[in-house]
Amino acid sequence: GAVIGILGGGQLGRMLSVAAARLGFKTAIFEPGGDCPASHVANFHLQAEYSDTEALKRFAESVDVITYEFENIPTEALDVLEALRPVRPGRKALKVSQDRLAEKSFIEGLGLSVAPFAAVDDAEDLAEAIEEIGCPAILKTRRFGYDGKGQARLKTSTDATAALSDMAGAPAILEGFVDFDYEVSVIGARGLDGAFAAFTPGENVHSDGILDTTTVPSRMSDATTAEAMEIAQKIMDRLDYVGVMGVELFVHSEGLIVNEIAPRVHNSGHWTQNGCAIDQFEQHIRAVAGWPIGDGRRHLNVTMINLIGDDMDRVPLLATDPNNALHLYGKAEVKPGRKMGHVNRITGSA
Ligand code: ATP
Ligand code: MG
Ligand code: MG
């Protein structure tokens, strides 16, 4: 059977591997770390650094198609891989999503709304950006941020110096603080043939910058729901995208505002494992393997609850409720802020 190569060995790579196995594929993981969640369930694990060109070549030659569970793949590594096998989703999506400035500019260029933003490389830029955008605002590193890391909130301009020192010299952007009503995300899928499907947008609650829960359906009206799905389709079409993408949106009284995009399966799409016949992981594998994608139909109402750090202590009790589907990542060490698993709690029929 065909082998799907996955860059990254975290929980997303693990759940992609499980979905691939269900469809009869084998999976190979490329991951510098040793004992990683994906390596426990994948068929092969090549443990090497992204700077190891020979290892990258061997990896590419051992698989039929390459995908990834995170967007920060070094450009040089992509060059090596892409020369040997198709990498899906492709280069455009990675280029745009690796850098918040490129991402915001791209989305704004599609005629979609984003928070006001400005590039910040030094104190002078920051002073100008604050003048232009005002406070409250959020300073974010342009690259490598996740789970709210690499962000500093500015209540007033007096917080500027501290916020800039939090960036430790990394290129950043200042974003105006959006006074949103609530947050949603669209998990979209686009096939090799250009077919598009979106799952029901979920309503997301964050705590300390980390996703806490996702609930489907959200509070959005049918019209706003349709609009959210169209936004995702527009973004994915323009990127010639193949695979699953997460599009995070702020629901504001004046309309939908795009927060960020993730060119991969997304934490806020985990509910699909128990709410849909074809979940986001299978949808992604289908797309990158060139299979027809599912239509995203939802059968159940679900609340996904992330199990972070000590939340693992709740597992024995959660396991007693027949409406709870547990998904644990097999991480050896519990750490504060570390995603250890999630629960999909079924709350009714769709
Ligand atoms: P992820 O883990 O989703 O990749 P991230 O580190 O990339 O997170 P963001 O999505 O940019 O971070 O921000 C995390 C959360 O912080 C958002 O979901 C939202 O709750 C809040 N936030 C971010 N930017 C803004 C903004 N401009 N205005 C208001 N709230 C914001
Ligand atoms: Mg992000
Ligand atoms: Mg986010």
Automatic annotation (TrEMBL):
<dbReference type="InterPro" id="IPR011761">
    <property type="entry name" value="ATP-grasp"/>
</dbReference>
<feature type="binding site">
    <location>
        <position position="140"/>
    </location>
    <ligand>
        <name>ATP</name>
    </ligand>
</feature>
<dbReference type="GO" id="GO:0034028">
    <property type="term" value="F:5-(carboxyamino)imidazole ribonucleotide synthase activity"/>
</dbReference>
<comment type="function">
    <text>Catalyzes the ATP-dependent conversion of 5-aminoimidazole ribonucleotide (AIR) and HCO(3)(-) to N5-carboxyaminoimidazole ribonucleotide (N5-CAIR).</text>
</comment>
<dbReference type="InterPro" id="IPR040686">
    <property type="entry name" value="PurK_C"/>
</dbReference>
<feature type="binding site">
    <location>
        <position position="100"/>
    </location>
    <ligand>
        <name>ATP</name>
    </ligand>
</feature>
<feature type="binding site">
    <location>
        <position position="183"/>
    </location>
    <ligand>
        <name>ATP</name>
    </ligand>
</feature>
<protein>
    <recommendedName>
        <fullName>N5-carboxyaminoimidazole ribonucleotide synthase</fullName>
        <ecNumber>6.3.4.18</ecNumber>
    </recommendedName>
</protein>
<feature type="binding site">
    <location>
        <begin position="145"/>
        <end position="151"/>
    </location>
    <ligand>
        <name>ATP</name>
    </ligand>
</feature>
<comment type="function">
    <text>Catalyzes the ATP-dependent conversion of 5-aminoimidazole ribonucleotide (AIR) and HCO(3)- to N5-carboxyaminoimidazole ribonucleotide (N5-CAIR).</text>
</comment>
<keyword id="KW-0436">Ligase</keyword>
<feature type="domain" description="ATP-grasp">
    <location>
        <begin position="104"/>
        <end position="289"/>
    </location>
</feature>
<keyword id="KW-0067">ATP-binding</keyword>
<dbReference type="InterPro" id="IPR005875">
    <property type="entry name" value="PurK"/>
</dbReference>
<comment type="subunit">
    <text>Homodimer.</text>
</comment>
<feature type="binding site">
    <location>
        <begin position="259"/>
        <end position="260"/>
    </location>
    <ligand>
        <name>ATP</name>
    </ligand>
</feature>
<keyword id="KW-0658">Purine biosynthesis</keyword>
<dbReference type="Pfam" id="PF22660">
    <property type="entry name" value="RS_preATP-grasp-like"/>
</dbReference>
<comment type="pathway">
    <text>Purine metabolism; IMP biosynthesis via de novo pathway; 5-amino-1-(5-phospho-D-ribosyl)imidazole-4-carboxylate from 5-amino-1-(5-phospho-D-ribosyl)imidazole (N5-CAIR route): step 1/2.</text>
</comment>
<dbReference type="Pfam" id="PF17769">
    <property type="entry name" value="PurK_C"/>
</dbReference>
<feature type="binding site">
    <location>
        <position position="206"/>
    </location>
    <ligand>
        <name>ATP</name>
    </ligand>
</feature>
<dbReference type="InterPro" id="IPR003135">
    <property type="entry name" value="ATP-grasp_carboxylate-amine"/>
</dbReference>
<feature type="binding site">
    <location>
        <begin position="175"/>
        <end position="178"/>
    </location>
    <ligand>
        <name>ATP</name>
    </ligand>
</feature>
<dbReference type="InterPro" id="IPR054350">
    <property type="entry name" value="PurT/PurK_preATP-grasp"/>
</dbReference>
<dbReference type="Pfam" id="PF02222">
    <property type="entry name" value="ATP-grasp"/>
</dbReference>
<comment type="similarity">
    <text>Belongs to the PurK/PurT family.</text>
</comment>
<keyword id="KW-0547">Nucleotide-binding</keyword>
